[in-house]
Amino acid sequence: MDNKYLDIFLDSLWPLLKAGLLFAVPLTLISFAIGLVLALLTALARLSSIKPLVWLARFYVWIIRGTPLLVQLFIIFYGLPSLGITIGAFPAAIIGFSLSVGAYNAEVMRAAIQSIPKGQWEAAESLGMTRSQILRRIILPQAARVSVPPLSNSFISLVKDTSLAATITVTEMFQRAQQIAAVTYEHMLIYCEVALIYLFFSTILSALQARVERYFERYTVR
Known about the structure:
Blueprint: H1 3-46, H2 51-66, H3 69-79, H4 89-114, H5 118-126, H6 131-161, H7 173-184, H8 187-217
């Protein structure tokens, strides 16, 4: 690599990493945590015997999964102000990503809960346990173990999806890369650099995912 390109690469490395640590990582963690809560509530609503809850949960999943995440972010950040609702860029990104995570992972959690044999429900009921006790003590711990691989994949995907926050002015890694490229005119170099950083983050998370899966496999009955 030419000294000029090497200098640009090294000079831009810390600003890109800083943007990732200050914006991309918090955005991912906060959105995923909120999204998991939404996913669990939506999954339980889908499995409920209360029809309005079932319809509401289905409508939420249908809307979010049926429209692009980029469009959702634009509606929240650029569209809502026309209705008198103004939300900052970072909170708007959190709302958009959380809703997306909640809708997609709701189906994961619903499938995981339904994968638990009905005999376990019946056995717990015969012991006098309430539905909430059965869910909390028996069903959800097992469903959580089943959900680990797809939820981990969702988390890794969210890390990469945070680059879309640049479109609503959040100064995360990709927008910082755009700013640096606009000054240096080395678009290929800078965009490849930010791609390598995303790849680095994803590789670490994939390794952690493998460790978590091996941990939970110890409790799997074979």
